[in-house]
Automatic annotation (TrEMBL):
It comes from the Bacteria. Gene3D superfamilies: 3.10.20.30. This is MoaD/ThiS family protein. Pfam families: ThiS. It comes from Arthrobacter crusticola.
């Protein structure tokens, strides 16, 4: 699956996107993996960014973090943005 990072999430990850083997995992599983992978690498930490972020799954707002993911899914991590 493809994870795309925006704003502070991109800064915390040090990349704008990455591919993970997420088939069969839930969104919460993937978020925990990402939080652990980038723990303490930047300020704010990825863990802090994920707590404040909203998410899109295949370009649709995600409300159910227990949703099971498929290999072709795209998860966007959208931290709060300033401006308008």
């Amino acid at each position: 699956m493809l994870i795309r990072y925006f704003g502070a999430a991109r800064a915390a990850a040090g990349t704008s996107e990455e591919t993970l083997d997420g088939a069969g995992a839930t969104v919460d599983d993937i978020l925990a993996l990402i939080g652990d992978r980038y723990a303490g690498t930047q300020s704010p930490s990825m863990e802090q960014v994920l707590r404040r972020s909203s998410f899109l799954l295949n370009e649709v707002a995600l409300r159910d973090r227990g949703r099971v993911l498929a290999e072709q899914d795209i998860l966007d991590v959208l931290p709060p943005f300033a401006g308008g």
